[in-house]
What does this fold into?
Amino acid sequence: MTTELIPREEPGRELDTLRRRLSQAAHALSRPSRLTLLSYALCAPLVLLLGACFLLPLLYVLHTGLHNPVVGSAWPEFVRALQADHANPPGEVVFRTLARELQQQRTDEAYKRTLKPFSQQEPELWRLLQHIADTLPPESFASAKAWFIGADPAWAEADTWKMIRRIAAPYTTHNVVNALDVGLTPEGTLRVKPVERRSYSLVIRDTVITGLWVTLIALLIGYPLAYRIVTMPRTPARVVLNVMLVLLWTAVLVKAYAWIALLDRNGVVNGFLLAIGVSEQPLALRPSRLVLIVTMTYALLPFMVLPVYQNMRRVSIDQLRAAVSLGASPPRAVFTAYVPATTPGIAAGCLLVFALSIGYYTLPALVAGPAETTISMLMVEFALTIANNGMAATMASIVLVFSAGLYLLYARVFAPIRGEIARPGALRVESK
Amino acid sequence: MEESDAQDDGRDCLLRFVDVHKQYGEDVIALRGMNLDVYPGEFLTLLGPSGGGKSTALMMLAGFDTPTSGDILYKGQSLADIPAHRRNFGVVFQSRALFPHLSALGNVAYPLRMRGVSRSEAVKRAREALNRVHLAPLVSKRPARLAAGEQQRVALARAMVFDPDVILMDEPLAALDTDLAIRMEEEIRQIHEDLENTVVYATQDHTEAIALSDRIAIINAGAVQQTGTPEALYEEPQNAYTARFMGETNMLQGTVTSHDAPMCQVTLDTGEEVTATAINIHGAGARTRLSVRPERLVVNPGDDVAPNRFRAKVSEMNFRGDHTLVHLLLPSGTRLEAKVPNAQAEVGFGPDGDVEVGWHARHCRALDPPQ
It folds into this structure.
C-alpha cells in the first residue's frame, strides 16, 4: 500500500522516503490525533442524549419494576434489624423493633399503606400483623419475642419469617410473578396459578396473539403491496410511498376518529350494511378483537411495507426471470427464488410490526378499548389509575424483553444473510 | 441486406426472427422489422450499441417479452405460445441473477430440481457442471462470497447444466475486468466447442464478438445491419455502420464521379481523387462514405500500391505496443490514421516528416451515403 504513495525516484531515495513515511504513520497511529478527539467530541451530544433520554429511563423502568420500597420506608429500623439477623425466627431485637414501629404507626393512616403489600401478597401474614397491631400493649415488655409467640404461635414458624423477609426485601420479583400469574411458595419456588385466578397473563397472552395476527395480516397485505411498488414506474411508486409516509405522520387522534366514524353504531359501515339490507339492525362492531386487529394492522402496515420494499429493491427482477428460464413456473419461481431472497426484509418487517403491536396504545385504546385490553392499556391503568408504578414498570419491562429478545434473534439469524443478499444486488443493471 | 438469410425456407435453421417489431408505449421502438436466423450448433453474437435492440431480442427469445408484431420460430414453430419456463433455453444475465440464498451448488442444481431430477442426481450433475467451469473447490459458497468472475462461472454452469437447446447470454462479461473477461472468453469458447450447443450472445464489444463467434449479427436501430463471419464483417462491411462498429477505420466522405463495377471513382469533399471498390452506391453523382482500415494504409508504399497515393505530413505518432498509430495530414486537410507494425525493421520517418501514403483500391470500400 505505502509504496504506491511514493513517487518514483532513485532506488536509494525511495527506500529513505519509505522509511520516513512508515515512521510517520506509526507515530500517527500511536497517539490519538487532534482530529480523532474532535470527532469524539462531536459525538458527545448524541451519546449524552442517548444516555439521558433512552438508557436512563429504561434502567429506571426496569428498576421500578423490581424495587420494593414500601415496607422499608415505613419500618426502616425493623428492616435493618431483619437484614442483620439471618435466623428464622430471628432474635429478640427484631421482634422488639417491629413492636416499636407498629406502636408508633398504629394510629397513623400510613400503617394501612404499609400493610397493603402484605394484604395483597400473603393475606395470612396480613391477618397476623393486624392481630398483633390490634392487641399490642402500649408499654414495652420484657421479651417481645415471647409476647409475639404467645399471641400467635405462627410467629415462631420459619415460613412466616421467610414470607416477611420476602415482602420486606428492598427488591422483589413480586410484580413479575404477579404479572405472569405464577405464585411463589414460601420456599421461593414458582407455582403456576390455576386458570380461574389468572388475570394479567391472559392479557399478555391475548396481546401476543393479537400481535401475531396483526403481523401475519400485515405481511399478507404488505408483501404483495411492496412488490407492486417495486415493479411500478418510478413516479407512481414515489406517490404510493409518500402516501404511506403521510399515513405514518397523520395524528393518531385523527386516524382514531376516522375509524370510529367508520365503525360506530351509526357509522359508515353500519349505514352501508343497513342500506344494502345485509343486516336489520346496526351491528356492534366495536369494541371487538376484530376491530382491534384491523386498526392495528392499518396503523402498522407501513412498518411492514418499507423494510420489505427496501429489500426487494436490492433483489433484481432478473432473479425471477432466471428462475423462470431455468424451468420454474412463475408461481414456483416466486416461492423458490424471490421470497427466499427477501426473507431478511420479511423478518425485519415482522419484527418491527410485532414489537410495535405489543406496545401499541392510542389507536387500539380509542377505537377498540376498553373492552379489549392490551398490555399497554394495563400499563396505563396501573400508572395513572391505580398508581401502582411497580406493576406498570413491570408490564413495560415485559414488552421491552419481548422486543429485545426478538431483535437479538433477528440479529443472530438474519443480519448476516442480509449482508450477503445486499451485495449481488449492487451489480444490478437497470433493464431497458 | 439480409439476402443470405431470406433465401432459404428456414427448415435447417434452429431459430428464426420473422419481421419482429417491438414497441413500448407510444414512441419507444425497440425492434423495427428484425429478421435473423440462428443455425444449430453455431455461436451467434448480436453485436451493437446499448439500446440498439439486442437485449430486447434476447429477452424475447428467453420468453420474457413478446413481439408487438412478427414472430419468432423455433424449429419452424412459433414460440408465441410457449411460456418461458417450458422453452428449455439457458439464460446468462449480465447481473448474473444468482440466487443469494443458495450455495453455488444449490444454484446450479436448481434447474435440475425444477425438472424433477432427484436430489442426489441433481447434485451429481451440478458438481460436474461446476467442475467444467473450474469451481469445484467453491461449490458450498454462497454467491456473495464469490468474486465477480466466479459468480459469472456459476451463472454459466447453471445455464448449461440442464442441456438447454439454446444458451442465451446477455453481455455476460460486461461487468468484469478486462483480464478476467478475456480469460472468460476463452472458457466460454472452449465450453461451446466441447458441448457443441447453440449460443446466442449479446455484446457491445467487437473484439469480444470477433474472438467468440462463428457468426456475428450487427444490430442497430432495432434491425440487423449485416450478418456474417467475424472476418467477413471486418474486411467486407456492407455499410458504414458495420465498418465503424467492427473496428477502427478511416471514414472519408465524397461523391461518386464514375461507376464502373466493381470499381468506382470518388472525389473526396476535400478534393482528392480516390479509386474504390463499389459496394453500396447508386451510380455516378451519389454521395458515399469510403472506409479504409488503418492497417491497410501503407506509408511510403512501394510501386505495387496504386492508384491511391498522396503526399502527407506525419502530425503525430502513438506507440501502441505491437504497432504504431501514425496520424497523417494531407495538404487538403484530410486526416488519416495508419497502423504501422513495429515488427518491421525500420519505419524510416518521424513526427513532422514528409511521407507518401497509399492504399489498394480493393481495401477501400465505397459504402452508403452519409446521413
Observations:
- The CA atoms of residues 90 and 159 of chain B lie 4 Å apart.
- Chain B has two domains: 3-241, 249-367.
